[in-house]
From TrEMBL:
TM region(s), chain numbering: 32-53
Pfam family, one: DUF3105
InterPro entries membership: DUF3105
Listed name of the protein: DUF3105 domain-containing protein
Entry keywords, A to Z: Membrane, Transmembrane, Transmembrane helix
Disordered as annotated region, ranges: 1-22
Domain of life: Bacteria
Residue stretches of biased makeup (Low complexity): 1-11
């Protein structure tokens, strides 16, 4: 009787040990499969990364503004107006504009937020131009502008929907105001032409897309 129990116990232990060995073998196989799958995924990511880098490299070359033709004409009020056509095509690459800052033209499909937004770094023109298309006035300045003027202009922008402000060291004058198709230089924040430009061009009749959003875009 005792012998039969011992045999049964030994048989059960053997089955358990066999099951344990089988489970360990399955775990080893699963680890091998997981490692193999990881290698494939990593390889795919590497290849994809190379393609992405190449794609980004391709996009780094600026393209000509496809439909912009014409020239600036300066009025008696000092405002430079673009007489001609300004492109409005959405593009993924950077654009070679006719002026700095640009007054319009082909641009990125995503705009910069322009609900009284003040940026401390230079913006990509392609995004800011889209803001102009929505009726924003863009205030830009160089390091030659006084700190007091920059602070006063920033305060005005923050209080005015459909405006934005950013530095731009590439422009020719210390302080410039830009709207779609229109641009002027001002001497200081207290220059009466600042208020006049805002009154005329913030959501002015020059706006290609009046009422379009100035939020929900990019922010610094």
């Amino acid at each position: 009787m005792g012998s039969a129990k011992n045999k049964s116990s030994a048989s059960r232990k053997a089955r358990i040990e066999e099951m344990r060995r089988a489970e360990q073998a399955r775990e080893r196989r699963n680890r091998i499969l997981t490692i193999a799958a990881s290698v494939v995924i990593v390889a795919g990511l590497v290849v994809g990364g190379v393609v992405l880098v190449r794609s980004q490299s391709d996009n780094s070359d600026a393209v000509a503004d496809s439909k912009t033709t014409g020239k600036f004409v300066t009025g008696k009020d000092g405002v430079r107006t673009w007489e001609g056509t300004l492109g409005r095509t959405h593009v993924a690459k950077s654009v070679k504009y006719s002026s700095e800052p640009p007054v319009g033209g082909d641009h990125n499909q995503v705009w910069m937020n322009c609900n009284g937004d003040v940026y401390t770094k230079e913006l990509k023109n392609e995004h800011a131009v889209h803001s102009l298309e929505h009726g924003a006035v863009w205030v830009t300045y160089t390091s030659k502008a006084s700190k007091a003027d920059v602070e006063a202009l920033a305060a005005k922008v923050k209080q005015t929907p459909y405006t934005l402000m950013s530095p731009d060291e590439k422009q020719k004058d210390p302080i410039m105001l830009t709207a779609w198709g229109h641009q002027r230089t001002v001497t200081s924040a207290s220059d009466p032409n600042v208020a006049k430009f805002f009154e005329t061009y913030v959501q002015g009749k020059q706006t290609p897309e009046q009422g379009a959003a100035c939020t929900g875009g990019l922010s610094e």
